[in-house]
Every structure is written in structure tokens, then in C-alpha cells.
């Protein structure tokens, strides 16, 4: 067993949290808001019909958009209520309940490595801190040798960017491109957000 994620602690403290989160995105979708910015960046990085892992997929907005663009998507999230919403709102991808700190998709019949992994929406800051490095190790293990992971999260959320880069290096992932937004603004030392495109080291 791994330490419980900060997200599931929030859910334990407030059992309405997951339903609130699902409804928040459903209402933005009804309002016609743009919910696919992260997916557009990832779509531009890969060949058609790529294999993409949506890590911490939540209710499926990123993986759903990538599946709609023709990619083969697997989504994994620790919160069963969000995975159920992903199944309802974005049928098609394989949506799985699981903790990223224990990610082992070959054990669940998903054996081929991924061309890209996307981890959007501050997922890294909702992990149990003791599991962050292990999650990155598992990300690397699920990527093809020429695959890339795209991970986005905000500053001032308890996971300093320097620590993240050190954990990524220890996990065998090195920066390919660093951005401060999903619409391709360059990263700077004082950026309040990081979008890290990482590749397997070596
Ligand atoms: C703010 S939501 C973002 C959801 C989705 N990526 C998006 O951008 O719409 C954070 C997500 O991280 C997931 N999460 C947090 N810790 C996790 C873990 N250890 N394993 C899997 N998912 C986790 C939560 O369940 C939640 O769905």
C-alpha cells in the first residue's frame, strides 16, 4: 500500500468533492468553454493514432479530446467517481481506477508502451508527497524509449519545480522542452506554472 493521495484525503474530508469537480467541468462544457488546450499540445507532438496515457485523467476531458482526435487513449485515476464520469462523458478510451504510485498497466493487460503521457491539471501536486518520485519512475516505465511525458502544474502548490526536476532526473526523465503555459510560452525561473516535456534519459 502507498500513502493516500492528497486528492483522496480531500474526498475523505468532503465526500461531495468529486461530484462538485465533475459538475464543474460539465458546466464549463455546456457553456462552450475551451477544455482541450492541453490535448491540442499533445496532439501536435505525436503521430496519428498514437498511444497516449492520460495520467490522473479525472473526468476525462484531456484523454477524451485526444481520443476524439483519433488516438488510442488509456486513462488512469485514483478517484472512482471521476473515472465513472469519464466513462459516461467520454466513452471510447480505456478508463481505469488506480493509484499512479502503483501504476502497472501490463499487469492489467495493457502491454504496449506509450508514445506520449499527459499529466495535466496539477495532478503532481495532488499526489502523496512520498510517492512523487515513484510516480515518475512508473511514468518512465510506461513510455516508449522515444516517447515523451508532458506534465503541467502550478508553482506555490507544495512541489517546488527544482524538486520536481530532481525527482524526474532520478526517475530517468530529462527535459526535452520547458514551457510556462499549455499554449507554448517559454519557461522562466519566475514562472508561476510549468509545462515540462520530458524524454527518457540516455
Ligand atoms: C485537478 S484534477 C485534474 C484531472 C484531469 N487531469 C484534468 O486536468 O481534468 C487532479 C486529479 O489527480 C488525480 N490524482 C491525484 N492523486 C492521484 C494518484 N495518486 N493516482 C491517480 N490519480 C491521482 C485526482 O483523482 C484528480 O482526478
TrEMBL record:
<dbReference type="GO" id="GO:0102208">
    <property type="term" value="F:2-polyprenyl-6-hydroxyphenol methylase activity"/>
</dbReference>
<keyword id="KW-0489">Methyltransferase</keyword>
<keyword id="KW-0808">Transferase</keyword>
<feature type="domain" description="Methyltransferase">
    <location>
        <begin position="52"/>
        <end position="147"/>
    </location>
</feature>
<protein>
    <submittedName>
        <fullName>Class I SAM-dependent methyltransferase</fullName>
        <ecNumber>2.1.1.222</ecNumber>
        <ecNumber>2.1.1.64</ecNumber>
    </submittedName>
</protein>
<dbReference type="GO" id="GO:0061542">
    <property type="term" value="F:3-demethylubiquinol 3-O-methyltransferase activity"/>
</dbReference>
<dbReference type="Pfam" id="PF13649">
    <property type="entry name" value="Methyltransf_25"/>
</dbReference>
<dbReference type="InterPro" id="IPR041698">
    <property type="entry name" value="Methyltransf_25"/>
</dbReference>
<keyword id="KW-0949">S-adenosyl-L-methionine</keyword>
<dbReference type="InterPro" id="IPR029063">
    <property type="entry name" value="SAM-dependent_MTases_sf"/>
</dbReference>
<dbReference type="GO" id="GO:0032259">
    <property type="term" value="P:methylation"/>
</dbReference>
Amino acid at each position: 500500500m502507498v500513502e493516500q493521495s492528497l486528492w483522496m484525503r480531500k474526498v475523505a474530508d468532503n465526500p461531495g468533492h468529486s461530484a462538485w469537480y465533475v459538475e464543474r467541468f460539465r458546466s464549463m462544457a455546456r457553456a462552450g468553454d475551451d477544455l482541450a488546450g492541453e490535448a491540442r499540445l499533445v496532439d501536435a507532438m505525436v503521430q496519428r493514432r498514437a498511444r497516449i496515457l492520460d495520467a490522473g485523467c479525472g473526468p476525462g476531458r484531456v484523454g477524451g479530446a485526444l481520443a476524439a482526435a483519433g488516438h488510442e487513449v488509456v486513462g488512469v485515476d485514483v478517484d472512482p467517481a471521476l473515472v465513472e464520469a469519464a466513462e459516461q462523458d467520454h466513452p471510447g478510451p480505456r478508463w481505469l481506477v488506480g493509484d499512479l504510485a502503483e501504476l502497472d498497466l501490463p499487469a492489467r493487460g495493457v502491454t504496449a508502451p506509450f508514445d506520449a503521457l499527459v499529466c495535466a491539471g496539477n495532478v503532481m501536486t495532488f499526489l502523496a508527497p512520498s510517492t512523487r518520485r515513484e510516480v515518475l519512475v512508473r511514468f518512465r516505465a510506461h513510455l516508449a524509449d522515444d516517447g515523451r511525458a508532458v506534465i503541467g502544474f502550478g508553482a506555490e502548490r507544495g512541489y517546488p519545480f527544482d524538486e520536481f526536476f530532481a525527482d524526474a532526473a532520478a526517475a530517468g526523465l530529462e527535459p526535452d522542452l520547458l514551457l510556462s503555459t499549455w499554449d507554448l510560452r517559454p519557461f522562466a525561473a519566475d514562472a508561476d506554472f510549468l509545462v515540462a516535456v520530458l524524454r527518457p534519459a540516455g
